[in-house]
């Protein structure tokens, strides 16, 4: 019984340590600048101001401020504009349709960016496997690319 307890504690410790190291990446100034250069801040700010004006006209007692509206616009942009949603990727060589095949082993580069799992989108025409690395997000197991 004691052994199981220690094993469980070690698992928790390893998970906490791993997540701690992962979160430290968000403090990297170079990565922050790169992320900020991708975000269309002026466009989102203008949309947030427009949305706030609409909300205030609809409800003069509106408690939301410009920062809340800006966060909502950022979330909308991130989900709807930043990503492209597909069931299967188009073939990276011929652009044709692909189908899921058996998963692939991650390369050293994919592992470096924490892609633990790589989907294989196999082209029916030219038979090329198109790699689709799935990134693990801290606290979840949800993946994104
Ligand atoms: Zn193809």
Automatic annotation (TrEMBL):
InterPro entries: Papain-like_cys_pep_sf, PNGase. Gene3D superfamilies: 1.10.1740.90, 2.20.25.10. This is Uncharacterized protein. It comes from Ameca splendens. The lineage of its organism: Eukaryota, Metazoa, Chordata, Craniata, Vertebrata.
């Amino acid at each position: 019984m004691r052994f199981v307890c220690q094993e469980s504690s070690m698992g928790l410790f390893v998970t906490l340590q791993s997540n701690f190291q992962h979160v430290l990446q968000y403090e990297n100034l170079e990565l922050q600048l790169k992320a900020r250069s991708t975000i269309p801040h002026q466009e989102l700010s203008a949309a947030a101001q427009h949305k706030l004006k609409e909300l205030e006209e609809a409800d003069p007692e509106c408690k939301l401020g410009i920062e809340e509206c800006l966060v909502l616009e950022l979330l909308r942009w991130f989900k709807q504009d930043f990503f492209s949603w597909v069931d299967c990727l188009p073939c990276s060589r011929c652009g044709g349709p692909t189908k899921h095949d058996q998963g692939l082993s991650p390369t050293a580069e994919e592992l470096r960016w924490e892609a633990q799992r790589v989907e294989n989108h196999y082209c029916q025409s030219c038979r090329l496997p198109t790699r689709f690395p799935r990134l693990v997000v801290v606290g979840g197991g949800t993946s994104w690319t």
